[in-house]
Design brief:
With about 500 residues, this protein is of the alpha+beta class. The chain has 15 helices and 14 strands. The protein has a domain of about 80 residues. The termini are far apart. Belongs to the FHY3/FAR1 family.
Length: about 500
């Protein structure tokens, strides 16, 4: 048992490391624009049940929490195995804990210890992780912001550029928030899939399975090292459980500058209860191809989650507000968009509505005739009066005026029917003809049972394929000859002209 910091910790009281070492020993960093929550920097307080990959991770975490709270940390006790000298337990406390012995008191210096009870006790458990077993948060003295010197940990032979203490604090805070809570905060408890889903809905946090938290953490660490402008935000519950996540890589952030005026907010996987509760912000590039503008994992289809992810996206894109957003038909989504993007034109995706026709109307008599009449009213009329007349005739002819889904659909007609949307800019993402549809960006890469860890691997494959398709389209547009509309020699001359490069 020791009453002083270990050699690797000497002089580190109150210091916050600029990097966190992942399972593979690589120091990970986070973009300096990231935040633990939108518009507010917040660090989750220690709690019983938190687990860390190593003692250093736990030590650095408590140091960073202390820095934000306004106190210093020291190691009160450490326990080692007799033979291997491997550390298996420790108590970290406030630097004001206890009182100095009389012989150690310097008469020229004022006594600073107050017998403060604040501490955490942790131990190495069977899973080879460090678990917090006891926590005392209360202090018996005033807390205040102090100036701490910042250090950086590096693996042997690894060099990193020096960075400001503010950036260091941001990086450590966000990476530890991603790591400390495991699988919904349930520790090593096991439960059935249905029970886990029920518990997740009840507690309003992500239904993470074993290893999912580590997979997210590893992915974010890897992206921080390879993608300098990578951005992510995390939303935690008051208990410290992971509720919502948002991220966007450098390419998505750059694409939003050019293609962020019209967005398709894809909730296909979330609303259909896929294993991965994924949402995606999708735009259309200069070739009419879909381009990813950001991704998120949401705990549920709630006003709070949708509002959070919209604010996260806007913060990532420097306050960008789209001109048009197309979504599935959902009143909760409509309310969240009105709150976050009040000037945006929100439209319901026509393809989503038409895909639900068999489900909603399939049980009616004369279904085929009703479907044909509905399709004709939606796609073939160019005037509002013609559309409304055709709708009225359909309802009266088949006696479906009291059908709840059709009645609600008619009430919302101005935000989904093409005849009302002639002045709305969709950037080619409007299905104005029968058979057209807005497919999910990851449609061919994710099925209903795809686990989160597998999705993170497929995510990069999907982006690589999209990037190749865009590069091929760019090359083709530069080298392909333009189609001529007339036989005019002047048009032929212009078709051969190439823009001057600056």
């Amino acid at each position: 048992m020791e009453d002083a910091p270990l050699p690797s910790e000497q002089g580190n009281d109150g210091e916050c490391s600029t990097s966190q070492r992942g399972p593979d020993g690589i120091a990970a960093a986070s973009d300096d624009q990231n935040g633990a929550s939108v518009g507010r920097k917040e660090f989750v307080a220690p709690a019983v049940g938190m687990e860390f990959e190593s003692y250093d991770d736990a030590y650095n975490y408590y140091n960073c929490y202390a820095k934000e709270a306004g106190f210093r940390v020291r190691v009160k006790n450490s326990w080692f195995k007799r033979n291997s000298r491997e550390k298996y337990g420790a108590v970290l406390c406030c630097s004001s804990q206890g009182f100095k012995r009389i012989k150690d008191v310097n008469r020229l210096r004022k006594e600073t210890r107050t017998g403060c009870p604040a501490m955490i006790r942790m131990r190495l458990v069977d899973s080879k992780r460090w678990r917090v077993l006891e926590v005392t948060l209360e202090h018996n003295h005033l807390l205040g912001l102090k100036s701490y010197r910042t250090i950086k940990k590096m693996s042997a032979g690894t060099k990193r550029k020096s960075q400001s203490s503010a950036d260091a604090e941001e990086r450590t805070i966000k990476l530890y928030r991603a790591l400390v809570i495991d699988a919904g905060g349930n520790g090593n408890q096991s439960c059935g899939e249905n029970e886990a889903r029920s518990l997740s809905d009840h507690l309003n946090h992500l239904n993470l399975k074993k290893g999912d938290t580590q997979a997210i953490y590893n992915y974010f660490c890897r992206m921080q090292l390879t993608n300098p402008n990578f951005y992510y935000l995390m939303d935690l519950t008051d208990e410290g459980n992971l509720r919502n996540v948002f991220w966007a890589d450098a390419r998505s952030r750059a694409a939003c500058v050019y293609f962020g005026d019209v967005i398709y907010f894809d909730t296909t996987f979330l609303s259909n209860k896929y294993e991965v509760p994924l949402v995606a912000f999708v735009g259309a590039n200069h070739h009419g191809q879909s381009v990813l503008l950001g991704c998120g994992l949401l705990a549920g289809e709630t006003m709070e989650s949708y509002t959070w992810v919209f604010k996260a996206w806007s913060s990532c894109m420097s306050g960008c507000s789209p001109q048009t957003i197309t979504t599935d038909r959902c009143k909760i989504l409509r309310g969240a968009i009105e709150e976050v993007f009040p000037r945006c034109h929100h439209r319901f995706g026509l393809s989503h509505i038409m895909r639900k026709v068999p489900e909603k109307l399939g049980g009616l008599n004369n279904y085929d005739a009703i479907r044909r009449a509905l399709t004709k009213a939606v796609y073939e009329f160019l005037k509002v009066s013609e559309f409304e007349t055709a709708w009225g005739i359909m309802v009266q002819r088949f006696g479906i005026g009291d059908h709840e889904w059709l009645r609600a659909l008619y009430e919302d007609r101005v935000i989904w029917a093409p005849v009302y949307l002639k002045d709305t800019f969709f950037a080619g993402m409007s299905s104005a003809r029968p058979g057209e549809s807005l497919n999910a960006f990851f449609d061919k890469y994710v099925h209903k049972q795809t686990p989160l860890k597998e999705f993170l691997d497929k995510y990069e494959l999907a982006l690589q394929k999209k990037h190749r398709e865009e590069a091929l389209a760019d090359n083709e547009s530069r080298n392909a000859s333009h189609g001529l509309k007339t036989r005019c020699s002047f048009e032929l001359q212009l078709s051969k002209a190439r823009p001057m490069r600056s």
